[in-house]
Design brief:
Largest sheet: 5 strands, parallel
Strand order of the largest sheet: 2-1-3-4-5
CATH topology of the largest domain: Rossmann fold
Structural class: alpha/beta
CATH architecture of the largest domain: 3-Layer(aba) Sandwich
Radius of gyration: 25 Å
Number of strands: 5
Mean pLDDT: 91
Helix content: 55-70%
Strand content: 5-15%
Length: about 190
C-alpha cells in the first residue's frame, strides 16, 4: 500500500494538499497537524512521502523533517509562505528534497513531489552502491591480510589465493569468512 503523510496545522490547507497528493497515485493519505505527530507517524507507519508545512505549533516542519530523516530517510517536500534564505538553508540541511511556496497550486506541488521522489530514489541507490563498495573493499583487505599469513607459511601469492578459494568452496563459505578464519589462526 502506497501511503503519503500530509502535515499542516490548518485543516483546510491539509485537506487541499492531501487531495493533490492523492492524485499522484497514493492509496492512503495519512494526516497530522504538527511536527511531533508527523515524526511519530513517519517513523511507525510505512510512509513513502511526506508533504509538510514549515510553520506549525509544537514542532516546526524543518525540525520534524530533520528528525524523520535521521530515523528513517524519506522524500520530504515542505510547503510554506516563507522564502527567506535562512529557512531554505535550514530545509536543505535537514534533508528536504523540495520546497513549495504558498499558495499551493496542484501542478506546482505535483512537480515538487515528482522531483522529490526521483531524487530520493537516486540518492538511495547511490547510498546502497557506496555501502556495497565499502563492503567489497573491507573484504578485499581481509583477504589480502589472509594471503599474507599464508605467504609467511611458504606459499607464493597465487598459491595463497587458490588455497583460500579452495577452502571457501570446500567449506561452502565466502572468501571473506575463510580469510577471517585464517587470520584468527594467526593470532
Amino acid at each position: 500500500m502506497k501511503r503519503a503523510l500530509v502535515v499542516d496545522d490548518e485543516p483546510l490547507l491539509r485537506r487541499q494538499v492531501a487531495e493533490i497528493v492523492s492524485g499522484y497515485g497514493f492509496d492512503e493519505i495519512l494526516e497530522a497537524e504538527n511536527g511531533v505527530q508527523a515524526v511519530e507517524i513517519a517513523i511507525h507507519q510505512e510512509v513513502l512521502l511526506v508533504v509538510m508545512d514549515v510553520g506549525m505549533p509544537v514542532m516546526d516542519g524543518i525540525t520534524a523533517a530533520e528528525k524523520i530523516g535521521k530515523a528513517k530517510p524519506l522524500p520530504i517536500v515542505l510547503v510554506t509562505a516563507n522564502t527567506e534564505a535562512e529557512t531554505i538553508e535550514r530545509a536543505r540541511l535537514a534533508g528536504v528534497m523540495n520546497y513549495v511556496v504558498k499558495p499551493v497550486r496542484a501542478e506546482q506541488l505535483f512537480a515538487a513531489v515528482d522531483l522529490a521522489i526521483h531524487q530520493f530514489v537516486e540518492l538511495s541507490s547511490l547510498r546502497d552502491e557506496v555501502s556495497m563498495l565499502k563492503e567489497t573493499l573491507e573484504s578485499r583487505k581481509v583477504i589480502d591480510r589472509a594471503k599474507g599469513v599464508l605467504m609467511k607459511r611458504g606459499m607464493d601469492e597465487p598459491q595463497a589465493f587458490r588455497r583460500l578459494q579452495k577452502l571457501a568452496m570446500d567449506k561452502r563459505k565466502s572468501l571473506r569468512e575463510v580469510a577471517e578464519a585464517v587470520l584468527l589462526t594467526e593470532d
